[in-house]
């Protein structure tokens, strides 16, 4: 009976264990988690979501504090168009986050960074270019383009000396999305080095509407694989979303996928950035505790735990300190929703905003508990302790279980 270890992800002459840990933000895919994946011979992602905030946490910098101080005068203003990031400081934060992670890398694996197009930061094109190029400058092994079609992202890097050296890939949820990307970037004569096909059971933001349940990852992977074969495009395909066991992974590897991307089971490892008390919320979750909603101001549906403190919270927009989701005109759907509720309840000391959430603040505080569809099965991967909590796992334990398990078995911790 086959296991994941019987397969290899190949980039040219380089062979890797075909396990990719997804880029969970903000800092859930921590440097420690990515380093473990690389040490074990696979690929680990760090995330570029809110990198200045992550840098403050990792290196005791003051990027957020300094930005908040500069724009303190604008806190009560509903117009956030003047609240912008210092691009030099943004590059500095990215250099620190990426560079020190790469310097600490051991083993035969790789470390990629997950770059989200929807983090528009009040200057979508300029901030995206800085994040991409600073990551390349700092030596990142690869960049995965996510949260959008990224039709112009390759062009933002084309003059960088590592544009054809680093591994560059994109996450798509349909064949059409991949075709649009390839068509748009044909003039660059630079194909993606890999394509992550993310299905409807993935965690966090989805590339589907609320009809997500009518789609199937196996079907999408098959469509994309056939297209790549027909077009004679030798691009490794990585399946993602709802791959909970090593046997699930083998079912894709046996049918043309070069690797699998997994994340949910790593949220409850010691190396993941979630606080321990939140990890226990994930362990305790039942299937009924998981929902797909539209509260994200990005416009994408988002899968998360119903008990997330971010749901219904009516905090004042924190754009002066954060502002990662402001569009090019300084707008965010949460600001509009918050101002609407304030106008409707002028005497209330605190309002509740049910239809949107301040994603920046709640992601930063680990109050937006995004998860994959099978998060309710996490309790079956651990052991219940006498105090009612579950054993927090090591990343190596989960990685090895994916790598060597067969027959839908899950190895419990000793």
UniProtKB/TrEMBL annotation:
Keywords: Flavoprotein, FMN, Monooxygenase, Oxidoreductase
InterPro entries, per database record: Aldolase_TIM, Dihydroorotate_DH_CS, NMO
Listed GO biological process terms: 'de novo' pyrimidine nucleobase biosynthetic process
Entry keyword annotation includes Hydrolase: no
Record CDD domains: NPD_like
Protein's UniProt name: Nitronate monooxygenase
Any single Pfam family the record assigns to this protein: NMO
Database matches in SUPFAM superfamilies: Inosine monophosphate dehydrogenase (IMPDH)
């Amino acid at each position: 009976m086959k296991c994941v270890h019987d397969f290899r992800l190949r980039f040219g002459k380089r062979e890797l264990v075909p396990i990719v840990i997804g880029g969970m933000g903000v800092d859930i895919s921590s440097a420690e988690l990515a380093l473990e994946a690389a040490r074990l011979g696979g690929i680990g992602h760090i995330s570029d979501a809110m990198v200045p905030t992550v840098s403050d946490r990792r290196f005791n910098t003051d990027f957020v504090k300094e930005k908040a101080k500069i724009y303190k005068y604008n806190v009560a203003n509903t117009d956030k168009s003047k609240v912008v990031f210092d691009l030099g400081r943004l590059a500095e934060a990215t250099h620190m986050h990426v560079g020190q992670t790469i310097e600490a890398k051991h083993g035969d694996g790789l470390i990629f960074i997950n770059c989200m197009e929807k983090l528009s930061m009040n200057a979508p094109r300029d901030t995206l270019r800085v994040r991409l190029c600073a990551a390349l400058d700092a030596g990142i092994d690869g960049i995965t383009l996510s949260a959008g079609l990224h039709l112009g992202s390759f062009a933002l890097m084309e003059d960088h000396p590592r544009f054809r050296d680093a591994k560059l890939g994109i996450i798509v949820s349909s064949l059409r999305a991949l075709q649009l990307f390839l068509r748009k970037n044909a003039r660059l004569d630079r194909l993606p080095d890999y394509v992550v096909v993310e299905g409807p059971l993935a965690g966090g933001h989805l590339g589907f509407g609320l009809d997500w349940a009518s789609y199937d990852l196996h079907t999408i992977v098959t469509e994309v694989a056939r297209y790549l074969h027909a077009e004679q495009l030798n691009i490794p395909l990585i399946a993602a979303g709802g791959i909970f066991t090593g046997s699930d992974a083998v079912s894709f590897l046996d049918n043309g996928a070069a690797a699998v991307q997994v994340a949910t089971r790593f949220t409850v490892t010691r190396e993941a950035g979630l606080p321990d008390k939140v990890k226990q919320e994930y362990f305790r979750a039942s299937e009924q505790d998981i929902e797909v909603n539209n509260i994200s101001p990005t416009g994408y549906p988002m899968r998360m735990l119903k008990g997330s403190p971010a749901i219904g919270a009516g905090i004042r927009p924190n754009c002066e300190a954060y502002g990662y989701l402001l569009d090019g005109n300084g707008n965010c759907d949460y600001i509009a929703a918050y101002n609407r509720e304030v106008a409707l309840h002028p005497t209330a000391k605190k309002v509740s905003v049910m239809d949107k959430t301040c994603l920046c603040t709640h992601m930063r505080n680990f109050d937006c508990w995004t998860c994959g569809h099978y998060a309710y099965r996490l309790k079956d991967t651990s052991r219940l302790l006498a105090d009612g909590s579950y054993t927090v796992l090591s990343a190596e334990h989960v990685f090895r279980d994916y790598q060597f398990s067969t027959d839908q078995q899950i190895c419990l911790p000793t």
